[in-house]
Amino acid sequence: MLFHAFLYVAYAVLNTAAMAAAKTAVPRFAAGGRSAAVGWLALGGALYAVVLAVLMVLLKDGEASTVFPIAIGCTVLSTNLAGAHFYGERLTGRKLAGTVLITTGIAMTFVGGVPR
Question: How far apart (Å, rounded) are the C-alpha atoms in residues 111 and 66?
Fold first, then answer.
């Protein structure tokens, strides 16, 4: 169970890092720094490949109807944290309520052992 939890966290963090790389590339591309933008996009693409590999491991051991919601929920949590910390995005009451609901749903899925 701990290994699967680690994989979900790895999936979320890597997915968020890939999105951050893409977000970093956009203003560089618009400013004419095409080589810098391509570098950031390449990094994002490589991270997405690793994310896909982690997802395949999770799907090998679990059902898609359980794996996908947990993985996406973890990614939402990770993205909210990264957005607030690195990009100064506000964590509104609505976002906080959604985050609590997602966290509760993930915890309920894990109650009683590894989700299969």
Answer: 13
